[in-house]
Design goal:
6 strands; 6 helices; 60s Ribosomal Protein L30, Chain: A; four-stranded mixed sheet; isoprene biosynthesis
């Protein structure tokens, strides 16, 4: 551990978009992304949700892994399980983040700072960046910055098949 008792962790998550008509809601960075009123029926499919056991919120999930990694407490799968019957099944990323913060506290750690980079063509994160930062910061209890990028049409995110996120987090021993 560093002299100041600050530890860093990194997390990553990626999910495929659900097929059109699946009824899955699109949740990213703790926010629901509804189909815009001005959206054509053909474009509405681009707001289909993300496949996953929970809400598929890649930003929240990457942040969970970063926080747990920093405290050396495992990862999202070790805390919430995997599969339809797991502890995390059907849950929202924000709820899971709040549980992780409580788990950190019970193990003597507190979040100090975090950053999440969302990788994908859609939705356009910049339009709601401040809202996303506020939602994640409130859930974690420390400042969380949110950035977004594309892969210039390369790979599964570039082809619009899915979305990914990378997060870094600092935790302090309390």
């Amino acid at each position: 551990m560093g002299a100041a008792g600050v530890l860093i962790g990194q997390g990553f998550d990626a999910h495929r978009f659900a097929p059109a008509g699946s009824g899955r809601e699109l949740w990213i960075a703790g926010l629901y992304w509804p189909v815009p009123d001005s959206c054509s029926e053909a474009d509405a499919a681009r707001y289909e949700g993300i496949e996953g056991d929970s809400d598929g919120d890649v930003a929240a999930h990457a942040l969970i892994d970063a926080l747990l990694a920093a405290a050396r407490l495992g990862d999202i799968g070790s805390l919430f399980g995997v599969g339809a019957d797991a502890h995390g099944a059907g849950r929202h990323g924000i709820d899971m983040l709040q549980e992780v913060v409580a788990h950190l506290a019970s193990n003597g750690y507190t979040p100090a700072s975090a950053s999440v980079a969302i990788i994908g063509n859609r939705p356009k994160i910049g339009t709601r960046r401040a809202e996303a930062e506020a939602a994640l910061s409130a859930a974690v209890g420390c400042p969380v910055s949110v950035t977004a990028t594309t892969t210039d049409h390369m790979g599964f995110t570039g082809r619009g098949e899915g979305i990914a996120a990378i997060a870094n987090a600092l935790v302090e021993k309390i």
